[in-house]
Prior knowledge:
Layout: E1 4-5, E2 11-13, H1 15-19, E3 26-28, E4 32-33, E5 70-71
Antiparallel strand pairs: 1-4, 1-5, 2-3
The structure holds zinc ion.
Amino acid sequence: MDIYECGPNGYVYDDAAACDGSPGGSRPCDYAYDPAQGDPDSGIAPGTAFENLPENWTCPVCGNFKGKFKTKA
Ligand SMILES: [Zn+2]
């Protein structure tokens, strides 16, 4: 099963930058969905293929939509 990376529009706020309220304090999200691990925090059991994730599943780190993910090269 393929690993899918978050992106290209997934961004998370850098904590330090968010604290001082400065704009642009974000960095690309580096989360990747690994089917072997699943996403237990969202109720996704290990062994669940990315294709079988519910359509309303979103990135647990930045909230990016499933459709924004891409296969890891
Ligand atoms: Zn993300």
